[in-house]
Write a structure and sequence with these properties.
Shape: elongated
Pfam families: HAMP, HATPase_c, HisKA
Keywords: ATP-binding, Cell membrane, Coiled coil, Kinase, Membrane, Nucleotide-binding, Phosphoprotein, Transferase, Transmembrane, Transmembrane helix, Two-component regulatory system
Helix content: 40-55%
Subcellular location: Cell membrane
Number of strands: 15
Number of domains: 3
Catalytic activity: ATP + protein L-histidine = ADP + protein N-phospho-L-histidine
EC number: 2.7.13.3
Order of helices and strands: HEEEEHEEEHHHEHEEHEEHHEEE
Radius of gyration: 49 Å
Largest sheet: 5 strands, antiparallel
């Protein structure tokens, strides 16, 4: 038996114990009081009939009730007691039975001290029999109406036995139900536990199907989704390490080869300068790669030195345009497109970091603008939820699979080598500003990278 099943059984037993205990206490204390009050009410009603009989100097028939009139120490029987099911004394047989009931009453009434009976009282006769009764004063003496108390005791005893039986039955039933529910609930949970263990070991296959239509099914769906994402991340991380190794190995090989040539004295004069220049260029490449990794790490850990300042958005775009024109080759035409109504849009930005994002967008556009239309559009426009800044090329486009992961720091869609950290860094910079980002692309029709400045971050001056 698993731990959850044991816990469910324990809780079910505890609940049953509490319920039975409360029920037993209520039955033992409240039920007798209720029943006794009802008996007193019946005796009150019967006393009215006895009083009427005393006025008429007669006796009456009462079922399971006795009545006497106590006056100056003398006790007079006022009723013929009829047991339940005995019938009335309307015929000779009934009269005989009524006479026998009256004689029985006369016998036990001699053993009771009626003078000691209180207004509402439970008392005993000399033989130890217990009775419940009431005493009422009248012009004819004290009327005492009473009945046997053993019926109440028997009833309470029977109720207690029933409560005990119910407790035993409910306890057994609850254990069976708890065991069933425990097995039913824990079976998918144990399966999910094994699934989570497999994921922790890097085993992402064997997707688990759970159809419980509750939170357990939602948890399973979340784990399956997590597994898929971790699998993608793991794959991209491996590719990242492979790309890093490749990007570091290539310049290191060049540096070593050139250094060995110089060391061995295989070159002289101007050739030494050329080889040294190659070494410096490869060192610069290595420094750039390491710098990219450090920048991404700082941005991811929110330890970047982004300094936000109020900036006119249109002025920033125009300044960036003139700078970016210098990195676009003569084979491409950078077109600026301003669709804003006015120039009064002010936003808190870090010019250097945001310019780096635009540079990355333009660099990607140049790389993929291999079409008859060698044009790149750099634009800004007002949309419903803010201001959008975009860079559009009309090149080869991006496939759907790459679009899903293109912003990830480990992903490189084109398999041409290199780490592909530019968009990952751009994403972190955009998010640090509180902006939105995205890409629209279709194979053969080009791509459009953009970020959106939400309305709440824009001030119009």
């Amino acid at each position: 038996m698993n731990k959850i099943s044991k816990r469910i059984i324990k809780y079910m037993v505890l609940i049953n114990l509490v319920v039975i205990l409360v029920g037993f206490i209520l039955t033992s204390s409240i039920l007798p009081k209720i029943y006794i009050n009802n008996e007193y009410s019946d005796l009150e009603i019967a006393s009215e009939y006895v009083l009427e009989a005393a006025k008429n100097n007669t006796v009456i028939d009462l079922t399971d009730i006795y009545a006497v009139l106590v006056n100056d120490g003398s006790v007079k029987n006022m009723c013929r007691t009829i047991s339940r099911g005995q019938g009335s004394s309307g015929n000779n047989s009934g009269s005989g039975m009524g006479h026998m009931g009256q004689m029985g009453m006369m016998n036990h009434s001699k053993n009771i001290d009626f003078t000691s009976v209180k207004n509402k009282d439970i008392f005993k006769d000399d033989d130890g029999n217990t009775y419940i009764g009431i005493k009422k004063s009248s012009d004819y003496g004290d009327i005492v109406v009473y009945k046997d108390y053993e019926e109440i005791r028997s009833l309470i005893k029977s109720v207690n036995l029933i409560i005990v039986a119910i407790f035993i039955f409910s306890l057994v039933l609850s254990i069976i139900i708890a065991f069933y529910l425990g097995e039913k609930f824990t079976k998918p949970i144990i399966a999910l536990q094994k699934r989570a263990d497999n994921i922790s070991k890097g085993i992402y296959e064997n997707t688990l199907e759970v159809t419980t239509n509750d939170e357990i099914e939602e948890l399973n769906n979340s784990i399956n989704k997590m597994s898929e994402e971790l699998k993608i991340k793991d794959t991209m991380q491996r590719e990242f390490i492979s790309n890093v190794s490749h990007d570091l190995k290539t310049p290191l090989s060049v540096i070593r080869a050139n250094s060995e040539v110089i060391k061995d004295g295989l070159v002289e004069g101007e050739e030494v300068v050329d080889y040294a220049t190659n070494i410096i260029e490869e060192v610069d490449i290595l420094s750039s790669l390491v710098g990219e990794i450090l920048v991404l790490s700082k941005l991811r850990e929110n330890k970047s030195t982004i300094n936000l300042a109020d900036t006119n958005l249109v002025d920033f775009i125009n300044e960036s345009y003139y700078k970016l024109k210098n990195i676009v080759s003569i084979n491409n035409n950078l077109v600026i497109k301003n669709e804003l109504d006015d120039r009064n849009y002010y936003v808190k930005i870090d010019n250097n970091y945001l310019y780096r994002v635009l540079t990355n967008f333009i660099t990607n556009a140049i790389k993929h603008s291999k079409s008859t239309r060698d044009e790149i559009t750099f634009g800004i426009k007002s949309i419903e939820n803010g201001v959008e800044i975009y860079v559009r090329d009309y090149g080869i486009g991006i496939d759907e699979e790459s679009l899903k992961n293109i912003w990830d720091r480990y992903y490189k869609g084109d398999k041409s080598g290199g780490m592909g950290l530019g968009l990952a860094i751009s994403k972190e910079i955009i998010m640090s500003h509180g902006f939105l980002y995205g890409v629209r692309s279709k194979l053969g029709e080009g791509s459009e990278f953009y970020f959106i400045v939400p309305n709440k971050l824009i001030k119009k001056i």
